[in-house]
Design a protein that fits this description.
Elements lengths: L5 H16 L29 H7 E6 L2 E8 L8 E6 L13 H6 L3 E5 L6 H13 L4 E7 L1 H10 L9 E7 L4 E2 L3 E2 H4 L7 E6 L5 H11 L5 E6 L14 H11 L5
C-alpha cells in the first residue's frame, strides 16, 4: 500500500501561507519611527486629521520612554529640505496644529507634530530625528507654551541637536518646566533668531514673553503681543500666523 501524501501536502500549503502573509518572522523596523519596514502604518486620525491627512501622514514617533502617535507630511512640491517641528503645549497635541499643516506644506516645509508625551527637549530632538530620516537638512522649532520652552532649550544646545536649528517661534512660553526645560536660562545663551509672542490677556504669559525677549542674547529677536486671552497654538488663528510665516521666511526659508 502506498504511503498517504496528505501530510506533506498540508505542510506545503502551510509553508506557502506563511510566506504569503509574512507570519512566522519579525519584520525589521524603521529606527526613526518604530514602524515595521515594508508595511503601512495604521492610518490613525487622532480625532482631528482629515482622512487624506491620516492616510498620508499618520505615523509613530520614538520619544524617550516609548513612542507616540505623530503626523509627518512633506512639502506639496519638491524635496523636503527645511522642516517645522511643531511642539505641543501641556494638555495639547498634534491636533492643535492641524488647521495649519496644509498651509505650511504648501509653503514648502515638511512638518511633524505629535501627541503629548511630556513635551520636553527629548521629544523635540526625536521629531528632528524623524525629519532628518526624511531628508530634511535644517529645521525651525515652533513651540506652544511647554513646547516653546522645550524648543528654546533645544535651540540653545546645538551640539545636542540632530539638525541645525535656523529659527525658533515661541508662543506663550513660560519661564520653564522644573526638571524638563528652562526657557529663562536658554535665552541667555541661545543665538538662533527667535520670535516671542503671547496674548495680552493671558495671565502672566505676556510679561514672561517680554522678559524672555529682553534678556535673550540672540542677535535677531522679535516680540509681538496680540489682543485676546488665548494661549499657545491658538495664537496662530488669532492673528499671529502671518507674522510667524514672515519670520520663518526671513530666517528659515522653506528652500533654504
Amino acid at each position: 500500500m502506498k504511503r498517504s501524501t496528505l501530510p506533506a501536502i498540508g505542510l506545503t500549503a502551510a509553508a506557502l501561507l506563511l510566506a504569503a502573509t509574512g507570519c512566522g518572522s519579525d519584520p525589521a523596523s524603521d529606527p526613526a519611527t518604530g514602524t515595521p519596514t515594508g508595511t503601512a502604518a495604521a492610518a490613525e486620525d487622532f480625532g482631528c486629521l482629515t482622512p487624506e491627512q491620516a492616510a498620508a501622514g499618520s505615523t509613530r514617533l520614538a520619544v524617550p520612554g516609548g513612542d507616540v502617535g505623530a503626523y509627518y507630511r512633506g512639502p506639496d512640491t519638491g524635496k523636503a529640505t527645511v522642516g517645522l517641528v511643531l511642539a505641543p503645549q501641556a494638555g495639547g497635541s498634534l491636533c492643535d496644529w492641524q488647521p495649519h499643516y496644509a498651509e505650511f506644506t504648501a509653503a514648502g516645509y515638511a512638518v511633524v507634530g505629535w501627541m503629548v508625551s511630556g513635551g520636553g527637549p527629548g521629544d523635540v530632538r526625536a521629531a528632528m530625528t524623524l525629519l532628518k530620516s526624511k531628508g530634511v537638512t535644517s529645521v525651525a522649532l515652533v513651540g506652544a507654551s511647554k513646547g516653546a520652552s522645550a524648543a528654546l532649550e533645544t535651540a540653545a544646545d546645538p551640539a545636542g541637536a540632530p539638525l541645525p536649528v535656523k529659527a525658533v517661534v515661541s508662543l506663550s512660553s513660560p519661564d520653564g518646566y522644573p526638571g524638563e526645560s528652562n526657557a529663562a536660562k536658554a535665552v541667555l545663551t541661545g543665538t538662533v533668531p527667535t520670535f516671542f509672542a503671547a496674548e495680552e490677556g493671558d495671565g502672566r504669559f505676556p510679561e514672561t514673553a517680554r522678559q524672555l525677549h529682553d534678556t535673550a542674547v540672540a542677535p535677531v529677536k522679535q516680540l509681538k503681543l496680540y489682543p485676546g486671552g488665548n494661549h499657545g497654538a491658538a495664537l496662530l488663528a488669532d492673528g499671529a500666523l502671518p507674522d510667524v510665516r514672515a519670520f520663518l521666511a526671513a530666517h528659515a526659508p522653506a528652500r533654504g
